[in-house]
Specification:
With 274 residues, this protein is α+β, with helices and mostly antiparallel strands. It has six helices and eleven strands. Strand 9 and strand 10 form a beta hairpin.
């Protein structure tokens, strides 16, 4: 009970209650990396469904052999960012690809970034400085061809508050056949991207104050390995291994997230006692 009270006394991260935007990108490994990115997307969709959360894909680029070179989706529900933030980082897979004729195990990787969804009041954007373009979304042909320019593309120049260097942000949205809705969603992504840059400064400050941090959001850090020949999943941040890979990739990831939460709470308790 004393430990529980200590944890309850730790101030919650104000970002935790927010919805999240998740970006998955295939890394090293070519087609196999894209397939792995697709597997991670399916894993998160199943996990979110089990939690009663809603998932909405905002953009994707499919791999030549399946999966995704890149996929971005929104997750809405209760305490989404506070739960999924532990998934940010490099995920590595070790398995025999379907195209491998000699049975050799290949190593591929995909990067996951979990961002808190930005509210309108979090980010100030001068909408008069946004350059909009419209285009026809791709279709399957015949009656399904989109004859209206419903796809939108926005360009916005954002000045980095630290370096004062201007950076052009380009966002496309073809999610619906309704141009105003696509504009609205493109704006939401712009707010989130700018918010993410500000949030990274906050994360860096937090990381400097602690020697270790479970949920840094560092996209270059290798956080987990999925080893198919051995049927195991290893989370490198807490040195935890479980030998039930099939269950894990089918969306049953709560056990590891719980252990990551406990590890971070322990870190925060130590920091508060210093």
């Amino acid at each position: 009970m004393e430990e529980e009270i200590k944890i309850l006394m730790i101030p919650p991260d104000p970002e935790d209650a927010k919805n999240a935007i998740v970006e998955i990108r295939g890394g090293t490994g070519g087609d196999e990396a894209a397939l792995f990115a697709g597997d991670l997307f399916k894993m998160y969709v199943k996990y979110c469904e089990n939690k009663g959360w809603t998932v909405q894909v905002s953009s994707c680029s499919e791999g030549t052999a399946g999966g995704f070179k890149e996929i971005v989706f929104n997750v809405a529900g209760d305490n989404v960012y506070g739960t999924l933030k532990y998934e940010s980082g490099v995920h590595r897979v070790q398995r025999v690809p379907a195209t491998e004729t000699q049975g050799r195990v290949h190593t591929s990787a995909a990067t996951v970034a979990v961002l808190p969804e930005a509210d309108e009041f979090d980010v100030v954007i001068n909408e008069g400085e946004i350059k909009w373009e419209t285009f026809r979304s791709g279709g399957a042909g015949g009656q399904n061809v989109n004859k209206v320019e419903s796809g939108v593309r926005l360009r916005y120049v954002w000045k980095n508050p630290v370096t004062s260097v201007p950076e052009e942000i380009l966002i496309e949205c073809t999610e619906t056949r309704d141009q105003p809705k696509n504009k609205e969603r493109a704006l939401a992504r712009l707010r989130t991207m700018i918010y993410d840059r500000e949030h990274n400064k906050y994360v860096d400050d937090m990381a400097k104050r602690r020697k270790t941090l479970v949920s840094t959001g560092d996209r270059s850090a290798k956080i987990r390995t999925y080893n198919y020949p051995q049927g195991r999943v290893t989370d490198h941040r807490i040195n935890y291994t479980m030998y039930d890979l099939d269950r894990f990739v089918n969306g049953d990831i709560q056990e590891v997230i719980d252990k990551l939460m406990i590890a971070e709470n322990a870190e925060r308790m130590k920091a508060s006692e210093l």
